[in-house]
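Hey, resending since the last one bounced:
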Amino acid sequence: MMHIAIVDDDETVQAFVAETLRGEGHSCSCYRSGLDLLAAAQRETFDLLIVDWNMPGMSGIHLMELAKLRIAACPPVIMLTNRSDKDDIALALNTGADDFIIKPESPVVILARVNALLRRSAAGGTAVQGPLQFGAYLFDAHRNVVKFGGENIALTAKEFALAMLFFANQNRPLSRAYIMEAVWKSVAELSTRTLDMHVSRIRTKLSLRLENGFSLRTVFGYGYRLETDHAQD
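The structure tokens again:
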């Protein structure tokens, strides 16, 4: 499941795209303007932005430019528009769009384009098929064990999932809501204290300090970020 932002001033289009994506199991948040999206990005984490080109106040092109500047680790962007001219398509792609969907489009094509882009970007992916190496840390999903410093560190299932989420999103700020939905499949029913407790445990168990290559930092008022030793503040 991915968290997708849909930005379109037409609520009918919003509802159509959101219903299509939710049917595939994705989580969607809808916004009517670029300013609404930029404000939401200060407290939420998104895996994909679907942006309408023609919106009052701020065009999709302008929004995409600002998003690349203002959103840390900006996710992929799909431009949604009724423009089909080749020059328009080139402008969107050259400005930073990762794909282009011309309205109206069928649900099956929208899903195919979205899922293909998400597979390429692997945003937020935490599925593990075998042991994964991140610096000096070796993750074994079959046993919920991380090998570090010559020792096997046992984690609970939730601790392992949380650690994998951070390591799969190195240097990317993750909001509390995003983390709780990804690991616990819930936001409303979960106390943030539960999240903080689990973060504290994996920080301690895995010795997540920069001298070990990774540091798990609190992003004030937002969530957490796993920084590598070469990350820039």
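The radius of gyration is 19 Å.

Sorry for the duplicate.
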